[in-house]
Amino acid sequence: MSNDDDLDNVFKALANPVRRRLLDAMKDGPRTTGQLCEAESSLDRCTVMQHLKALETADLIIVRREGRERWNHLNAMPIKAVHDRWIAPYARGAVAMLADLKERVEG
After folding, report:
1. Closest Cα to residue 51, out of 79, 15, 91, 77?
2. 80, part of any domain
3. How many domains are there within the chain?
4. Any idea what the CATH number is for the domain that residue 69 is in?
5. Sign of the torsion angle spanned by Cα atoms 46, 51, 54, 60
6. Are 34 and 48 in contact (CB under 8 A)?
7. Is 51 helix (H, G, I), strand (E, B) or coil?
8. What domain range includes position 24?
9. How much is the pTM?
């Protein structure tokens, strides 16, 4: 994650519930495109492929071809970059405020 454009792509990809479900389906291991299409059976294959392309553009998945199969692997590094940049600093501040509040209440 080198720049704001990369982070923008990650946020855009994560903003869609279908894409989040596809990522959830890959959290325990890689899945073929066919398996992901079965998991999202209410969508046609072309639509699932468009969502997978958005995830690949955001570098949230890594795609490997093995013969006729297309394996989709979760890439957690962009999610970690979002955590490190946006979540961790705010969480530290919130934890410090809660600790201070606890100390004041308990005296």
Report:
1. 15
2. no
3. 1
4. 1.10.10.10
5. negative
6. no
7. helix
8. 4-75
9. 0.81
Structure tokens of 100? 């201070």
The CA distance from 76 to 80, in Å, is 6
Contact 75, 60 (CB under 8 A): yes
In a domain, 43, yes or no: yes
Percent over 70 (pLDDT), the chain: 98
Give every residue of the chain whose pLDDT is below 50, as ranges.
Answer: none
Instruction: Quote the tokens at residue 57.
Output: 């553009």
Query: Cα separation of 4 and 12, whole Å?
Result: 12
In a domain, 106, yes or no: no
- At a CB cut-off of 8 Å and minimum separation 6, what does 46 contact? none
Would you state the pLDDT for residue 37?
A: 98
Distance of alpha carbon 98 from alpha carbon 107, whole angstroms: 14
In a domain, 96, yes or no: no
36 and 52 in contact (C-beta within 8 Å)?
Answer: yes
Q: Please give the structure tokens belonging to residue 74.
A: 């979760």
Question: Which amino acid is located at 56 in the chain?
Answer: E
